[in-house]
Amino acid sequence: MSKFYITTPIYYVNAAPHIGHAYTSVIADCIGRYHRLKGEEVFYLTGTDEHGEKIKKAAAAKGMEPQPFVDMVSENFRNLWKALDVEYDYFVRTTDKDHTAAVQEVIRILNEKGDIYKAVYKAFYCVPCETFWTDTQVKEAGGSCPMCKRGVEEVEEENYFFRLSRYEDWLKKYIADNPGFIRPKIRRNEVTGFLENNKLADLCISRPKARVSWGIDFPLNGDYVVYVWFDALLNYISAPGFLSDKEKFKRLWPADVHLMAKDIIRHHAIFWPVMLYALGLELPGTIMAHGWWKMGEEKMSKSLGNIVNPLEVIKSVGVDGLRYFLLREISLGGDGNYCAQALINRVNSDLANDIGNLLHRTLNMAEKYFDGAVEAAGALPEMFRESFGRLSDYAPAMDNLELSAALEPVLAFIGAMNKSIEEVKPWALAKAAKTSELKEFIYSLLEGLRVVFICLYPFIPSSAVRAYGQLGLEAKFDLKDVSWGAVKRYNITKGEPLFPRIDVNR
Ligand SMILES: [Zn+2]
Q1: What is the per-residue pLDDT for 155?
Q2: What are the φ/ψ torsions at residue 167 (nearest 5 degrees)?
Q3: Which of 100, 107, 304, 355 has the least C-beta neighbours within 10 A?
Q4: What is the per-residue burial (b if ≥16 Cβ within 10 Å, else e) of 229-257?
């Protein structure tokens, strides 16, 4: 049995989850479910990043100690994943004992290899981003933080460093030799451009407790904690058992896909590969950065006050309405415009009109003409030969993380089935008592729907399960069943329409 290991970033718990977090986790869920369809052992890792001064401050603002505060926010994330049908396999928290022990062990290993040293550090520090910047970087950004554009403070202190610079040539070569390592191409170019224009500086991986107290104890010196990014990235190996379960780790590592939003690509494409290489571990297959959902021209952010709460959206369009919109509207990697009207239009057109209506009409006819029992009658009809054949494009697109493109042949087949009802006019066949022709047609629609919902399952899982219930099938989805004639007899149970149209004027 082959394995598939996919990760989201661990989310920073300084604030409540929003649509940006939902987007990453839903993409990973869709990809994970697809690999389950293929019969693979899937390990979907997500979790929460719980250290750093920013979190201590956020806790203090609520009059709380850090630990109960991170417990609460981490729980909010888990609740959201439940509401969004996000089926993860492991939820890592950086305050977990296993994780803490793994981070400390990694620092000991790297120290023994001579990759860690102590030195005086002088730089500019951005508190909100918890990131150090060099003189040049701050100058280029007009005297502020290059990431968030806020003010920076000058810091001078003794710290521990990881010898990132030692691996600069290796990293450049690795990226050049492995074109699929950083995706999409625009991000790969961004990273190679950065590496061409900047000498890779050693990474400061400690913070003095005098300044940052909420973190993992630095194993080489009790006066320090581990830099939050160095701590966080290691979740990808601590969770599958780097220290705690060597056998499991051997089976699962390396990760196949690290998924994240584009603003944290550098941490994943520069620090992380070097950390792994220095540890003597294999590198992940693909580092995939997706785009942002914007409101008009602006990024969604807490400070701009334009955050969309996914739980509110679910109330109006349902969990699958939101999932479908996020996955369908933009191709993975690009930015999207979040617009409530576009969301409703998409749900009404694709889900209610095309998919839901086809299912409901077909079930109605099966019930009306055959009391709900329809057995196999004939091979794949000529009129579906082309559109059904195009479904062979689905799996290669999914394998290549082109989720929106993978839906195209599925929607085309649904369109062909809807059109065929108007052309064949089953009601006329019934009137003329052409029973065998009528049965053959209804059977092919049922068979087509069965196949369609296998392909849609990673996108809209709970609706696919409901559809299978109405088709009288056990909700066991397997990519191998995307073939004509796999079910010989249907015994349907007509239910409520899967996707009621959303009234726009509500
Ligand atoms: Zn910043």
Answers
A1: 87
A2: -105, 10
A3: 304
A4: bbbbbbbbbbbbbbbbeeeebeebbebbb
Tell me how far the alpha carbon of residue 270 lies from the centroid of ligand 1, in angstroms.
19
pLDDT at 121: 85
Q: What spacing in Å lies between the alpha carbon of 296 and ligand 1's midpoint?
A: 23
Distance (angstroms) between ligand 1 centre and the Cα of 233 equals: 19
* Locus of tokens 């000991």: 108
Q: pLDDT band for position 360 (50/70/90)?
A: very high
Q: Say how many Å lie between the CA of residue 134 and the centre of ligand 1.
A: 13
CA of 316 to the centre of ligand 1 (A): 35
Q: Is the pLDDT of residue 458 over 60?
A: yes
HEC string of 58-113 equals HHHHCCCCHHHHHHHHHHHHHHHHHHCCCCCCEEEECCCHHHHHHHHHHHHHHHHC
Q: What is the pLDDT averaged over residues 38-66?
A: 95
Q: What was the pLDDT predicted at 505?
A: 63
Query: Measured in angstroms, how far is the CA atom of residue 234 from the centroid of ligand 1?
Result: 22
Distance (angstroms) between ligand 1 centre and the Cα of 151 equals 7
Q: How far is the CA of 143 from the centre of ligand 1 (A)?
A: 11
Is residue 496 a contact partner of residue 364, using CB atoms and an 8 Å limit? no
Taking 70 as the threshold, does the pLDDT of residue 506 lie above it? Answer: no
Residue 149 Cα to ligand 1 midpoint, Å, equals: 6
Stretch 85-110: mean pLDDT, rounded? 98
Sequence-distant (≥ 6) Cβ neighbours of residue 11 within 8 angstroms: 17, 21, 46, 47, 48, 49, 77
